[in-house]
Amino acid sequence: MVEPSHNRRAPAWLIVAAFAAIYIIWGSTYLAIRWAIASFPPFFMAGTRFLIAGSLLTAWLMLRGERLPTRRQWAHALVVATLMLGLGNGVVTWSEQYVPSGLVALFSALVPMWMVALNMLIPGPDGVRAGRPPAMVIAGLVIGSAGMVLLIRGRDGDFSGLGVGLMPKLAALALFFTTLAWALGSLLSRRMDRPASTFMSTAAQMLMGGFVLAAAAAARGEFADVSLSRLTWAAALSHAYLVVFGSIVALTTYTWLLRVVSPTRVATYGYVNPVVAVGFGWALGGEPLDEVTAIATAMIVASVALIVSARPGKSAVRANAPTAGGLEHARAAAATISQPGQLPHTPCSGGRPPASMKGETDARKVDRAHISDRPAGWETPMSDRAASRSPDPH
Asked: For position 320, what pLDDT does the model report?
């Protein structure tokens, strides 16, 4: 694999191929998870999946001469992995014991809505907080959500597809908050300190996520439930597929897309994955495909088209930003300073700036104070920060 350069805009064909990968591969993983947990306990299966994938990817990168993450980067990877893989994928895997895989996939359609909401609250890696999303994005979110509800209601409209009893309903509630954890982890990953290499960043997240899930499996006593006598070929092949394609290929692609495309567009996988999952369930799992499912599928595809084709919004807010006039003065002052934090040499006694520069100096202080408000995790390699700035602010 050759990692695309982050120093220039990625070619359109590569972005299209990356979207196709997360759309199709992650859509197919729901059925693969269902087959895998037929022989493995859920958190044990998820934990070994990411530990094996992370170890293989890390070993390959070290053979290529890649540097391991710093302690700070490992810590940040742990935070992101806990949200995305521990609370995200781990709960999805556990819930498939009680909820059909196609319906589990439907909950991923909540991710774009969380992305839009959180993107307006959490500043990006450049300190900019997205403003109100464009009308086309809002329309896409509404249509996609309606399509998701239609799929859940089914032909009879009684929402009985979740199953009977308490556990399916608890699993559905857990899935609702799981999508929030995944969206939050995705947005935080854009501004936290991470390796310049997308592959090493993904490997670190998978290793940390694997340890979190393994700890959850140990706490639940799942290691004692592992028995090779119950292992089937379907479960073994499904586990291998999740390691190679569902983890190494798809998660690396997802991490790279978050660096070069807006998070709202990346989150459209949440609308496509349920459609793909339903298709795999119909083709390989013998699940019914009726006209209601077809209509809902068309609505979801239309919502993705609206979100992806939307133009950037016009409003964006920089967290703790100075006023427009103060910022312009700050930029003017910065242009006259050769090194950060130093004033140009003047003949004034004591090295003080002339009175004419006082306004510029004050503005410089305002701008410097604004920069110091950014969290410590904001400092990432320059090429990484440039790549993280998506072409549209939403």
From this structure: 46
Helix extents (H) in the chain: 12-36, 42-63, 71-81, 90-95, 101-106, 111-121, 135-153, 166-189, 198-219, 233-241, 250-260, 263-266, 269-284, 291-309, 324-335, 358-372, 382-388
- Where in the chain are the domains? 12-317, 320-373
Opening angle at CA 376, ends 319 and 54, nearest 5: 115
Alpha-carbon dihedral sign for residues 311, 313, 319, 320: positive
Give yes or no for residue 22 having a pLDDT over 50: yes
Give the CA angle between residues 309, 314, 320 to the nearest 5°.
Answer: 130
Tokens of 185: 């982890």
Q: What is the pTM of this model?
A: 0.69
pLDDT at 154: 63
pLDDT tens digit string along 265-313? 887 887 788 888 888 878 887 766 778 777 887 888 788 778 767 765 5
**Per-residue pLDDT at 240:** 97
What tokens does 207 get? 């290793």
Question: What is the C-alpha to C-alpha distance for residues 139 and 136, in angstroms, rounded to an integer?
Answer: 5
394 Cβ neighbours under 8 A, 6+ residues apart: 116, 119, 130, 131, 133, 134, 137, 262, 264, 310, 312, 313
